[in-house]
Amino acid sequence: SLKGANFGMANLTGSNFTNANLTISSISNNSTSFQDANLTNVNYTSSNLLGATGIETAIRTGIIWSNTTCPDG
Asked: Around 25, how many Cα atoms within 13 Å sit in the side-chain half-sphere?
């Protein structure tokens, strides 16, 4: 569980977040990259992903996007 984690300015390229709980986590920095990450079954409920990059290249199967701020706002 990474509930409430703050990934500001993190480079998460190629990371594996399979089944991770990222509820109420915060990216909110345009330096954060999810390029080629595995986001299978990640829970982004109430998370802020504003400015994150690379999500379009990530594996996004089964993600929960409830009340999530997406990278493009």
From this structure: 22
- pTM, whole model, 2 decimals? 0.71
What is the rounded CA–CA span in Å between residue 19 and residue 73?
24
Give yes or no for a contact between 35 and 16, defined as CB atoms under 8 angstroms apart: no
**33-54 as b/e: b if 16+ CB within 10 A:** bbeebbbbebbbbebbbbbbbb
Divide the 73 residues of the chain into consecutive groups of 10 and give the mean pLDDT of each group: 79 82 70 80 84 85 89 86
Assigned token pair, 25? 């986590």
Taking the CB of residue 6, how many other CB atoms lie within 10 A of it?
13
